[in-house]
């Protein structure tokens, strides 16, 4: 029933426009009552983004299941990948929704609030992990924002290309960029010398990001 | 007249609540007609954030006035400082609004959309400056998000402290954090040897951010 409502809603949104479609139109096409609609969706906006609540719950559970062994920045990057997976599961639906959302201000506002909830979940986890460290909340908030921005940069490029291309590879590349700037290396596997050193030589006027890039390569994280 | 409307609106919002106050109540208290209200403010939300449009225009003008000599990350940090200045000009008003916004979902949504417009302005500028470079839009989006997150981390701490303490110093500290991660050094002044080198030696398991911190210190940007 839930899927039938989503399908009916999208058919009408695309045919008539979002604002022009009422909940009554949707339930009429789906052949169910108004009550059934509101059992699944608190509002008309929610039927456009039917999977975000589940994804937010999955993300929260994933972060809560972390241990102290998990490198925090890697963990929030992996948490962000859950969002990508939700979009990539239904490429055609995701692309349709992207086009619809771009045209309808109330949906853009809804999307911003969802993105903000993801970002807050990531930041909340990092704040806990960084507790007691210098600039803990600042670092947590900046990293969470960077992860979300990198994820969305890659996701939107994929949506703009009509879901063609490898979304996961693009998001991996984008998140590596953030991990390189903020993440720690995992502890070296047993047998590898912890005294291993890396030397970087840079001219003073070299942009810091270039030095970091070289550093990544040297550390095998490029 | 504009200031009188803002003052009347805030008096009522704080006394009765935001949802409970109508535009009619506001114009009655201010002693003007409805038309006057809507000449200044498109909606009731806008009277809560009366200075963002001007600040967005100032930010856009500031970024448009940039030259190729301006280091891009420093420039967006300076652009973000315009927002802080707007809040710091009227500390009492800013703190009242912060408390009000926290309680009213529609105002939080409005604030998210404003923050997003600032972030897009910064990202748009960086995308142009980085055009032709590797990962240009990715880097632009991530840096813009990091700048906004750092700025808001410091701004909100100041608002939570009821506007006590030095907001500018807090924002400077937060933005330095972002500049250190992403910014380039300015070209060395004439007379300084461009061949100047810096050597960093790090153990392989050292977190990358620690290496970057040392690097900053070595490069005199700590």
Automatic annotation (TrEMBL), chains A, B:
<dbReference type="InterPro" id="IPR009057">
    <property type="entry name" value="Homeodomain-like_sf"/>
</dbReference>
<protein>
    <submittedName>
        <fullName>TetR family transcriptional regulator</fullName>
    </submittedName>
</protein>
<dbReference type="Pfam" id="PF00440">
    <property type="entry name" value="TetR_N"/>
</dbReference>
<feature type="DNA-binding region" description="H-T-H motif">
    <location>
        <begin position="22"/>
        <end position="41"/>
    </location>
</feature>
<dbReference type="InterPro" id="IPR050109">
    <property type="entry name" value="HTH-type_TetR-like_transc_reg"/>
</dbReference>
<keyword id="KW-0238">DNA-binding</keyword>
<dbReference type="Pfam" id="PF17754">
    <property type="entry name" value="TetR_C_14"/>
</dbReference>
<dbReference type="InterPro" id="IPR023772">
    <property type="entry name" value="DNA-bd_HTH_TetR-type_CS"/>
</dbReference>
<dbReference type="InterPro" id="IPR041347">
    <property type="entry name" value="MftR_C"/>
</dbReference>
<dbReference type="InterPro" id="IPR001647">
    <property type="entry name" value="HTH_TetR"/>
</dbReference>
<feature type="domain" description="HTH tetR-type">
    <location>
        <begin position="1"/>
        <end position="59"/>
    </location>
</feature>
